[in-house]
Amino acid sequence: MKTGKIRLLIAAMISFVFSIVYNGLVHLVILGTANKRVESLRRVDFSSKAWISLLATLAISFLLPMIYSHFVSEKSYKKGLFFGFCFGLLIAIMVDVNQYVLYPLPFSLVASWALFGVVEFSLIGLIVGLIVKDKT
Asked: 64 with 16: CB under 8 angstroms?
């Protein structure tokens, strides 16, 4: 396997582990009380569907480094951070704003989800930028 592909795989795996830990900290600890208040809106069979969320996180953990590797011409930790920030902002607008429109959620909670999401993707971008390098 070529070095570039190995670096992509490593970046994806580290991103996945980081996302699981980060989301656990954010949603269970930091926003735990606020998330509990809207628990009644959650699917009754949420536990049996949690694997879908893990699979989606795994997919994003592989897609972000692949997109970065392919489309960012000059790779660096700064470019990775900016790329992750833009990616997070896009996701926040697409997902969190629509959650607020569709469901009776408190704006403060949705804004927190969006902010923590942008921070998460910025940090993932930083991780990817530190690992995925230009060909030398």
From this structure: no
Look up the pTM and report it: 0.92
Tell me the one-letter amino acid at 126: L
Distance CA 12, CA 61 (A): 5
**SS3 for 65?**
helix
Would you give the DSSP letter of residue 44? T
CA geometry: angle 87, 92, 93, nearest 5 deg: 100
Cα–Cα distance for residue pair 73/56, rounded to 1 Å: 27
pLDDT digits (tens, 9 = 90+) for 22-74: 999 999 999 999 999 998 888 888 889 999 999 999 999 999 999 999 999 99
Quick one: tokens of 54?
Answer: 């893990």
Query: In Å, what is the CA distance from 98 to each residue of 39, 92, 109, 135?
Result: 18, 9, 13, 39
Nearest to 108 by CA among 39, 37, 34, 28: 34
Q: Cα–Cα distance between 82 and 123 in angstroms, integer? A: 10
Contact in structure between 129 and 12 (CB atoms under 8 Å): no
Residue count of the chain, please give it.
Answer: 136
